[in-house]
Amino acid sequence: MKAFIRVLLFCLPISVSYAQPRTDAVLMNLFATNQSPIFLEVIRNPDTCRLQIIYTQINRDKNNNPTFKNYYFNVDSTNYFNPASTVKLPLALLSLEKLNGLKAQQVTKFTAMQFDSAYSKQTKEWRDETSETGYPSIAHFIKKAFLVSDNDAYSRMYEFVGQSAINRTLHAKGYLDTRITHRFVRMTADENRHTNPIRFIQKNGTLIYAQPAANNTDPFDFRRVAKHGKGFYLKDSLVNQPFDFTERNKFPLEAFQQVLQSVLFPLSVPAKQRFNLTADDYRFLYQYLSQYPGETNYPKYDAKQYYDSYVKFFFMDSLHHQMPEGVRVFNKVGWAYGFLTDASYVADFKNKVEYMLTATIYVNRDGILNDDKYEYNSVGHPFMYQLGQTIYSYELKRKRQYTPDLSPFRLTYEKRNNDNRPPVKDVDN
């Protein structure tokens, strides 16, 4: 009883979910090996913290072809969590797919872009001094979205793809319970339905391709209500009622895991779930899903603030920010409103180990949203680290019939140049 009381101190009392969550004994037994107090308290009371976990074992045959086995802990697609920045992953893929579908052959992910405004709250963006060219581009947005989870990069990709195409395409690929309805700036539902006019230009400013402003008239299905907490702040005023996420973005954990798997192992998912990407797109995505901010020259992020494990929750130790030798994590994270979420593919080139791990947790002791009082550092991050280390330690010992050849994921990363440009700090993420 004492452990349960302590959990209630840092997790939100929640509404009841009547669906039966999936839990496998394999994970129950594995988690019992970790005696960390925080880890044990969360695992013993998963509903209190809205915890969901998917552990994916990867086994190779003699030809190095992988097979995947998912193990679930408290996974329930009807149990809403705020996906936060995790939706930047599908937006990056949809942006590349749209580029590949354009008939203007001169337009690539590296082509300079400019955003105009044509509707309420829309903003212009003609320059980006953090890029090597001084202009925005889809490639640069993806870098920023993956390296430090930049919010403006996501909103600009949202504007490029368009609200209608985002949701129609994801649903057509089989991600039916997913919806993406808004930018990461304060806008009304109507304003989020409208997206900016955009142009692609040559280095001398000559127009290559123009995309007009758009308005999505497709309806959304908001019948499933999602309200959390006991209150929230609206500007400086406390509203004593649950925060309504019903019309916000939704990205169930299984869909998140499958989207990442579709990028890293496209042949392992049904053809309709794959994205129309080129070989160079895949290489580019692999690099920036796993490269560290401190290795990158454009943008030149402050390596102290944005350390190696900054967006690698399963390896983000509060004391040491270095990653284990030989390990690269290909992942995307999200955090907002007390939710922490990560979907990762871990490749250990030194020990020849690979696996996927996806999880979300909610930490909000006072039940108030928008008060910036969430237990990320005291509970959320320590739990995610302990979860990551539990699975990693198990994988290091797990017997495999065939040792995986991880060479497709062995990349040449950038080296930071010593120049006089000031590093980028305090990104809106």
Automatic annotation (TrEMBL):
It holds the Pfam family Beta-lactamase2. GO terms for biological process: beta-lactam antibiotic catabolic process. InterPro entries: Beta-lactam/transpept-like, Beta-lactam_cat. Keywords: Hydrolase, Signal. Residues 72-193 form the Beta-lactamase class A catalytic domain. One of its GO terms (molecular function) is beta-lactamase activity. Residues 1-19 form the signal peptide. This is Serine hydrolase.
